[in-house]
Amino acid sequence: MQLEDLNGYVILAGTSIAEDGRIAFGSRRMNLEDDRYDAHIWVADGQALRKLTAGPTDLTPQFSPDGTKVAFLRKGSAPTDKPQLAVIEVAGGEAEVLTDFSMGARTFDWSPDSARLVVSAMEYASEWAELESDERKRKPVRVTRLPMRFDTLGQFHNTVDTTWIISVDGQDKTKLSDTEAFREVGAIFSPDGSKVAFCSDRSGELVATLGTQVWERDVQTGDLTMAADLGMWSTLAYSEAGVLHAIGLRDIFDWPDMLQLWRLTDDSPVSLTSGLDRGIADAAFVGDQAFVLVEDEGRVVVKQVGPDGVVIDVHSADSVADSLSVSSGGVAFVESTYDQPGELMKFDDGEAVQMTSFNDGFGTKLVKGEHFVINAGGGDVDVWVYLPGGSEVIPVLLNIHGGPAAQYGYGFFDEFQMYVGDGYGVVACNPRGSSGRGAEHVKAVVGKSWGVNDFADIQVALDEALSRYPRLDADRVGVMGGSYGGFMTAWITARDQRFKSAVVERALLNWSSFSGTSDIGPYFPQMYVEASLPDAQDELWEASPMARAHEIRTPTLIIHSEEDYRCPIEQAEQLFTLLLRAGVETEMVRFPGESHELSRLGKPVHRKERFEAILDWHGRHLLITAENLAN
User: Fold this and answer.
1) For position 627, what pLDDT does the model report?
2) Which positions ≥6 away from 171 have C-beta within 8 Å?
3) How many domains does the chain have?
4) What are phi and psi of 608, to 5 degrees?
5) Dist CA 488 CA 344 (whole Å)
């Protein structure tokens, strides 16, 4: 895979399966020329495939219950355009945009009678709504609570998340939110249409967490009932009988742990997947049966969960499933593999059938990863190695994922394919702290184990890969990672001098300043380091790469986004200043207007320029060229 291939493949996402088995889904492709994503909605009816919308950017389709319409989010072509709710007849015609929320619609759900939709939207708060853009930029900001901003969503001081019910023709719009004091997100209808469930932290705490409560609102009276108290809740879903469920944890400080599927009863939430010891990524219901996506040793698989907690395997392969949708018409999802960016799948009558072929032929450019398992003394760790064609000895890039509660695996990953395409061998692993191998594995880096157990696993994984694959040149090894992976890159290079090149991206580097500047700073240190300000300055500093960054000798490229509110750019600036003063070869590349999600959701041109910067940096220090030999 080369840089010019970035707009050569299609990413599928957002499936919705109707009762008769038709599937609506979205496609997205980079458009480097116009610096945008071209995204459309399609309908698959058996093997017949039809493009339903013209774009330019149409996302997250959802069939109406009667199967006659598809609702979706449409974003215009201007950079300042926000996604709005739109509806189109499945039979064809022009889509009608129903909303004009100042900051855009976020999520939506159909009413059971297909006559209305409930919409979660972001708007300017009242005192900011009538101001012109220049006035908003000039107006002083009065901050009274945290968070005051959130990654990808921007500043919170002048916006509010609200809930609306909108008729399918757009003529009747009713605002359900009773106050601007609390944000409401992820609203869905109950099966009989009498209630709307949503997530909202209405506790009134001045320092809020990622925690939310789950609420149900009577559509007619507006009466509110709490379905779950403050916890880590998301992805609400009703069973056919009207029983509300959610994915999450009962206490935000249970994290890191396996996200579970919970039945929200009158007494207290009941976990249906506590015995699974794997994290739940998505859930949808048919009758009283939940279908869930589950992270499992580098795979994402589909399972069925009954109301009694009995779990049945539905679809499992060396692949990554995504975008789950279910109905009496079957199960739909998108599936990707090492050498397949993803295609629409339908599971029915015990068999998964591929419904699309958007990326046929692109797989010839891609390399399959090779998997093995190691044990560094703390349980099994999955490792993958990617090798380009040929037999020559090649430089190595050790990649470290973010999180740390995330996983590499069997799915398509453009990063690995790009590096292999440039002549590198890629080594990647899921050390302790990663998801996919249960609660004990993901919790193994908490407290005094932070930077210890994970570091040990990564070292053993790299050494084993170098031993197993003679083509990998142990004298030309680079290391790189983003977010937690950026933390670990800086942590490693201060302790292991074997690396000839490093890229530290959107990294957490100083826990102390992170505590006060990150959108998750008030609680994330407590989750992992089990320490927080003002009483644990020494512990936070010892757990920070900056504490030993003066020992780094590896040439280091630092990449950061200027609107990254998860790991604010001050983190990068600290490391850059220290390395420059210490005489280490270093550069910093700053991307304006981008968030923590640059490598996944950033502007296409920025994503290309990011790859160019990474390949240039590693090329200077790892590739055997006449210029490098001369230097």
Assistant:
1) 61
2) none
3) 1
4) -65, -45
5) 35
In a domain, 520, yes or no: yes
pLDDT at 628 (0 to 100): 64
DSSP state of 14: E
Identify whether 422 is part of a domain. yes
Domain hosting residue 574, numbered range: 367-630
How many Å apart are CA 399 and CA 409, to the nearest integer?
A: 12
Q: How confident is the model at residue 155 (pLDDT cuts 50, 70, 90)?
A: confident
Question: Rounded distance, CA 460 to CA 199, Å?
Answer: 42
Integer Cα distance of 231 and 332 in angstroms: 30
For residues 264 and 244, the answer to whether their CB atoms sit within 8 Å is yes
Peptide bond into 534 cis (omega under 30): yes
How many whole angstroms separate alpha carbon 252 and alpha carbon 228?
13
Q: For residue 474, give the DSSP letter.
A: E
Asked if 351 and 342 count as a contact pair (C-beta separation under 8 A), the reply is no
- What is the C-alpha to C-alpha distance for residues 517 and 527, in angstroms, rounded to an integer? 17
User: Does residue 443 fall inside a structural domain?
Assistant: yes
Residue 175: its H or E element: strand 173-175
In a domain, 197, yes or no: no
What secondary structure does DSSP assign to 144-166, as a single string?
-SB-SEETTTEE-TTEEEEEEEE
Read off the tokens for 237.
């879903």
pLDDT of 366 above 70: yes
Q: What are phi and psi of 442, to 5 degrees?
A: -75, -25
CA distance 336 to 349: 21
Q: Quickly state the pLDDT bin for 330 (edges 50, 70, 90).
A: very high
Please give the average per-residue pLDDT across 43-50, as a whole number: 94
* Bridge partners of residue 315, in order along the sequence: 302
CATH of the domain at 409: 3.40.50.1820
Burial-class residue 427 by CB neighbours within 10 Å (0-12, 13-18, 19+).
buried
Coil vs helix vs strand at 573: helix
